[in-house]
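Researcher: Structure prediction, please.
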Amino acid sequence: MKPYYDHAGITIYHGDCREVLPTLELPSVLLTDPPYGMANNADYSRFSGGNTRRGPGTKHEDIHGDDAPFDPTPFLDFESAIIWGANHFWSKLPSGGCLVWVKRNDGAFGTFLSDAEIAFIAGRQGVYCFRRVFAGSQKAIDAGFDAYLQSAHPNQKPVELMTWCLGFSEGDVLDPFMGSGTTLRAAKDLGRKAIGIEIEEKYCEIAAKRLSQEVLAF
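Model: Predicted structure follows.
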């Protein structure tokens, strides 16, 4: 299969990961943020009275595949695996550890939407936390909506978070639900090879642009 993007050890494939993965030699490390199966309404402008002028990306289309339950089983046979959104499919996961991304300052806990997000990490028993408050989050909280609404993808994670996640493993990386390419950008910054797969071409384009930047813009 011809890559959508292939440069400096980072490769992107545009397609359904269920069809693309059998054609690839897979890396040893899985780090991904799949559709959770929660049918999330990604039009976040509803939290700001329909105002989308605070920045690009406040009004998203719904995530492809998020209207059906997610089954993590096909993605568990890796030497290292981290899967975000684990609280939505805990019953389908084996025993393992837990990563917690704390995305609020203490004073904002319980004010609006989630204070943190959770990932499953294979081969661990502990709970590990990482705090990275969104840029401009206090202004966003004051306005009644989260700063992540201004990102390129409705579930976009910070690069710093994915860099932290990669610190739990060594080796080449796979993200079969790549989105806007944050996992690949973190891998590139660490000098690690990575493969990303994304079913929506618009996000492949965004990821390719992010990877071409020497200084990350978002």
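Model: The chain has one domain: 5-212.
Researcher: Thanks, that helps.
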